[in-house]
Design a protein that fits this description.
The chain is an alpha/beta fold. A seven-stranded parallel β-sheet has the order 3-2-1-4-5-6-11, sandwiched between helices. Strands 7-10 form a two-stranded parallel ribbon. α2 links the parallel β1 and β2. α6 runs parallel beside α7 and α12 packs antiparallel against α13. The longest helix has 25 residues. It starts with a helix and ends with a helix.
């Protein structure tokens, strides 16, 4: 993201759904640093610990506790806040959890999308809206080529399929309502994100973080599975770019893949190796027998469209992304003997250091 674009958010009213989650907390911090007026609407943080509270975000932004399935409360908050831009992150985001609770997953991810689209439709103030889905929305044949934005949507598992449905809901609202209203609306299909502060279950790097902090080997279920890993700041920068550009010119509205370059689409085992080497201190990983339901072995996105439209290129390659995650993890570990206020200050210092370094390096590279 160009520094001028980041600074263009100063003073803008922005509503984030799902702000208490991993990506939502990073996005909230990124926007607060830009000077934006940020409101979040979400359930309580999904894990303990969680980045939202580690950063003290509840004291630094307007934070509303609410369920995305509660359309009355959601539309009420929209009317009260009067945001110019809305970004929808709230979701049940885990594949394995979707097998355990398919009804809850579809309810949150499909009807939640209906509700936020309806709230945006009823709003006179929203000019720019982005629904964030996933790279797993595509009908995955596990081919070598990256999926393009115009290919069929039909996710396999309940999580992936619910996000395919979320895309279709958004497309319907665009055709039925938003185009006539002149609202700029896009969807973004992001690949696997990594970074400090992710404590979710059943994700490789959060599992690795827990293991190294407990001084035990990192267990890897599917070391040969190929995924498009990227630092969390990479897609967040694209989301902000989309929100800003389409607000200026509705012709930027569309459907976008947000993923790393081909060389950063690596196996889970390679990712585990990068992390244990970056963390050091004798950290190691070992393969474990897969113990869960179906998950795709190979998935890659084409990021050519965002390169063509926005002139975008990743700032941090996967190795750097992992190194920054390891650095954040060590900063977090070092807060164990600090007071809550001191720990919060240190976590925020490390998080802001990474954000400012990423912006600076992106600016130097002409991003």
């Amino acid at each position: 993201m160009r520094k001028n674009d980041w600074e263009a958010f100063r003073g803008k009213k922005i509503l984030i759904t799902g702000h208490t989650g991993f990506k939502g907390a990073w996005l909230s911090e990124l926007l607060l640093l830009s000077g934006a007026d940020v409101t979040g609407y979400s359930l309580e943080p999904p894990t303990e610990p969680n980045l939202f509270r580690l950063l003290g975000l509840e004291k630094r932004m307007r934070s509303v506790t609410g369920d995305i399935r509660d359309i009355g409360r959601l539309t009420g908050v929209m009317k009260e806040v009067q945001p110019e831009m809305v970004i929808h992150l709230a979701a049940q985001p885990l594949v394995r959890e979707s097998y355990r609770d398919p009804v809850g997953t579809f309810s949150t991810n499909v009807m939640g999308t209906v509700n936020i689209c309806e709230a945006v439709r009823q709003s006179d103030c929203v000019r720019s809206f982005l629904n964030v889905t996933t790279d797993k929305v595509y009908l995955n044949t596990e081919r070598q080529e990256g999926y393009r934005e115009d290919e069929p949507l039909d996710g396999y598992d309940p999580y992936s399929n619910s996000k395919s449905c979320s895309e279709l809901v958004t497309h319907s609202y665009i055709r039925s309502f938003f185009s006539e209203q002149g609202k700029a609306v896009s969807t973004a299909r992001a690949g696997n994100v990594i970074g400090g502060g992710d404590f979710a279950a059943d994700r490789i790097l959060p599992d690795a973080v827990r293991a190294v902090l407990e001084q035990r080997p990192v267990g890897v279920r599917n070391p040969h599975s190929v995924r498009p890993y990227q630092h969390v700041l990479e897609p967040l920068g694209v989301y902000m770019e989309i929100l800003l550009r389409q607000a200026e010119d509705i012709r930027y509205a569309g459907y976008y893949n947000v993923g790393p370059d081909e060389e950063d689409t690596i196996t889970t085992g390679e990712l585990a190796t990068l992390f244990t080497e970056a963390f050091g201190e004798g950290a190691k990983w070992q393969a474990e027998n897969p113990d869960g339901p179906h998950e795709a072995n190979f998935l890659r996105l084409s990021n050519q469209k965002i390169k063509d439209v926005f002139g975008w290129h990743p700032v941090w390659k996967v190795k750097r992304a992992v190194e920054e995650t390891a650095a954040w993890t060590k900063a977090f570990r070092n807060t164990r003997f600090l007071s809550m206020e001191e720990g919060e200050a240190e976590i925020r210092k490390e998080t802001d250091r990474e954000i400012l370094a990423w912006i600076s390096e992106g600016e130097s590279a002409g991003q």
